[in-house]
Design brief:
- The chain is of the alpha+beta class.
- The chain has a single domain, classed as monomeric porin ompg (Porin), CATH 2.40.160.
- The chain contains six helices and 22 strands.
- A twelve-stranded antiparallel barrel has the order 1-5-6-10-11-14-15-17-18-20-21-22. A three-stranded antiparallel sheet has the order 4-7-8. Strands 12-13 form a two-stranded antiparallel sheet.
- Strand 21 and strand 22 form a beta hairpin.
- The longest helix is centred in the first third of the chain and has 32 residues.
Length: about 375
C-alpha cells in the first residue's frame, strides 16, 4: 500500500513537470496563432468570459461579467497518516515516549469535504461569491496508552456543514489580457465547534480535538490579491490569500491566521479539453488560547494526543498539483465542465507534533452560464 502510494505520488509530480513544460511551449505557439484582432475586436463583456473564465479551472479567484453565474460542486478527499515533528516522521512508540507525555496516538484521519459555490457578476467590475461545505472527518480510532499497553478506542466521525464564506471580487485593473483583482470577505461561523466524544476513565462528553471540529467559531475576515493573465487558449496567475482570526470563540480559543501564495497556469488543447498545473505555499499559525470547556471537564485533556495541543497546530506546506478539465463547448449545456485535480505536498514542516497530509484529490462539476453564453 505504501509503495503504491509512493508510485502514485511520483507519477503526479512527473505529470506536473510535463504539464508545466508543455504550457510554456504552447503558450508561445498560441500567441503566434492569435492575432490582435482576435482579442481587441471582442466586446469586453464577452472577452472577460472567454478568457478569465478559464482561470476558474486553475483554482485562483476570478471575476465574471455582468449577469453571469458560476455554479460549482466539488468533492475533495484529504487523508492524513501518522505523526510528524518538523519534517521528521514519528512512530507510535516515539509519540508515546515523547517528552510531552502524550497518552494517545491517531493512526490516520480522513477529511471528506463536499463543497458548494455560487458566483454572480454584479457588473463587469464586481462579482459576488458564496461558498459552503458539508464535511465528514473520520478518525476511525485512537490508540490510547492504558496501563502501559496501547489500546484502540473507537471514535465516531464529525459530520456537518462548515463555515459559510462570502466574498466580493473587485476587478481593480483590467488591460489587454491581464487583470488585477482585490477580494474582501468573511467566513461566517456556521460550522460546529461542539463535536464531542466520550472520555474513557471518567465517562463524560468532551470536545474532540481541534482538527475534528467543523468550523472556527469566529467571524474571520478574508483578504485576497490576484494577478491574472489570459488569452483565448491559455491562462495563468498568481494569488495571495489570507484568513485572519482576531478573537476567541465561546470555548476560549481561536484558530491561527492562514496565509497562502498560489501560482498556476492552464492551457486549452481543444475546445473541450484543458490541463492545469499549480504551486501552493501555505502557512498557518497555532491555536491561540485553549479549549477551556474541555479542560474544565477533563484536566488532562491536552495530553490525550498531539491533536489536543493548541500550541502544536502551526505549520508550513509547499504543494504541487496537476489537473484535467473536460468542458461542453456548445449547445444547451455550454460552459459545463468536469475538473479532476490531484495535489501533492512536496514539503511539510509542522511546528510541533502534528498529522501530515498525504495528498488532496478533488473532483468538481461547474457551470458558467449567462444570457450571452446561451445566445452564442
Amino acid at each position: 500500500m505504501k509503495r503504491a502510494y509512493n508510485i502514485l505520488s511520483s507519477i503526479a509530480l512527473l505529470l506536473f513537470l510535463v504539464l508545466l513544460l508543455l504550457f510554456g511551449v504552447n503558450t508561445i505557439k498560441a500567441q503566434e496563432l492569435e492575432t490582435e484582432d482576435d482579442i481587441y475586436s471582442t466586446p469586453i463583456d464577452k472577452l472577460l468570459n472567454l478568457t478569465l473564465d478559464k482561470a476558474s479551472v486553475i483554482g485562483l479567484p476570478h471575476p465574471h461579467a455582468k449577469g453571469f453565474f458560476h455554479i460549482k460542486y466539488s468533492r475533495m478527499i484529504m487523508p492524513m497518516t501518522g505523526f510528524q515533528e518538523g519534517t521528521t516522521t514519528l512512530s507510535q512508540d516515539q509519540v508515546f515516549n515523547h517528552p510531552d507525555n502524550f497518552s494517545g496516538y491517531a493512526p490516520d484521519m480522513m477529511m471528506d469535504m463536499n463543497m458548494f459555490m455560487v458566483m454572480y457578476g454584479l457588473n463587469d467590475l464586481m462579482t459576488l461569491m458564496a461558498m459552503t461545505n458539508y464535511s465528514i472527518i473520520r478518525m476511525d480510532s485512537m490508540v490510547m496508552l492504558m496501563g502501559g499497553s496501547p489500546m484502540p478506542m473507537p471514535m465516531d466521525p464529525s459530520k456537518g456543514i462548515g463555515d459559510l464564506k462570502l466574498m466580493l471580487n473587485i476587478n481593480a485593473y483590467n488591460r489587454d489580457v491581464t487583470s488585477v483583482l482585490f477580494n474582501i470577505g468573511v467566513a461566517i461561523p456556521t460550522g460546529s465547534i461542539d463535536q464531542q466524544v466520550m472520555t474513557m476513565m471518567n465517562p463524560r462528553m468532551v470536545n474532540k480535538p481541534y482538527p475534528m471540529q467543523l468550523g472556527s467559531g469566529t467571524w474571520d475576515p478574508k483578504v485576497e490579491v490576484v494577478y491574472l493573465g489570459s488569452t483565448m487558449r491559455s491562462s495563468w496567475g498568481v494569488g495571495l490569500k489570507s484568513v485572519l482570526r482576531m478573537y476567541d470563540n465561546k470555548h476560549g480559543y481561536h484558530l491561527g491566521n492562514r496565509y497562502q501564495i498560489m501560482a498556476g497556469a492552464g492551457h486549452n488543447w481543444a475546445k473541450w479539453f484543458a490541463t492545469t498545473a499549480r504551486l501552493d505555499y501555505v502557512t498557518w499559525g497555532n491555536v491561540r488560547g485553549k479549549d477551556e470547556t474541555s479542560i474544565a471537564i477533563q484536566p488532562d485533556w491536552e495530553q490525550a494526543s498531539p491533536n489536543h495541543r493548541a500550541d502544536l497546530r502551526a505549520g508550513t506546506r509547499f504543494e504541487a498539483s496537476a489537473g484535467l478539465v473536460f468542458e461542453v463547448p456548445k449547445g444547451t449545456f455550454k460552459g459545463v465542465a468536469a475538473i479532476f485535480d490531484y495535489r501533492y505536498p512536496i514539503y511539510q514542516n509542522l511546528r510541533g507534533v502534528g498529522m501530515p497530509i498525504d495528498y488532496h484529490f478533488q473532483v468538481a462539476l461547474q457551470w458558467i452560464v449567462g444570457e450571452k453564453h446561451l445566445k452564442d
